[in-house]
Amino acid sequence: MYKQQLYGRAYVWFFIGWYEDNWYEVNLKNENISCTKEQMKMAAEGHLTTEALMWNQNNQKTISGMSSEDFRKRLNAALIAEGYDISHNRYPEGYQEAPLAYDAVWSVALAFNKTMQRFTEQNSGKNLKDFTYTDKETANAIYAAMNSTQFLGVSGVVAFSSQGDRIALTQIEQMIDGQYYKLGYYDTQADNLTW
């Protein structure tokens, strides 16, 4: 982009938003990028990103009993205990996705509980411990349970589409002066864009 002069006010770039905030400065040598950090910053200036909202935006207690801020504090304390220096806003790779991973585990646990409850109510004699990958009946029961799972998690409202995709708000950001600024959110379920 920089060397072809495809940047500046005349261009609008859209990048995926789940890279770490300083993605354009790190690993340049490892990725054989011949631009300097300054050139990368100039080329990246003004770009827009979209990504699934990864942190619940209010401080409500979630299904775990923690708010998203409680979870962030607990995660940061664990990272500090492991020797990570997060005091300079340098987080390990995957940090942004931690709330999604946490809520994914809750989703699986809730789906398994629903499946076990269904088997008990049906008095079918089936048990999750006996599940094999050729057991279509149990697989369908787990799929149905997952599909109907909905709760408030540290990443926001957790629900799934009929295809099994996570339904989440989409966050829209723009890089201005090297910093990301939130521009708005898109709610796919309500087909609503809020700036």
From TrEMBL:
It comes from the Eukaryota. GO terms for molecular function: G protein-coupled GABA receptor activity. Residues 2-176 form the Receptor ligand binding region domain. It is found in: Membrane. GO terms for biological process: gamma-aminobutyric acid signaling pathway. Keywords: G-protein coupled receptor, Glycoprotein, Membrane, Receptor, Transducer, Transmembrane, Transmembrane helix. GO terms for cellular component: G protein-coupled receptor heterodimeric complex. InterPro entries: ANF_lig-bd_rcpt, GPCR3_GABA-B, Peripla_BP_I. Pfam families: ANF_receptor. This is Receptor ligand binding region domain-containing protein.
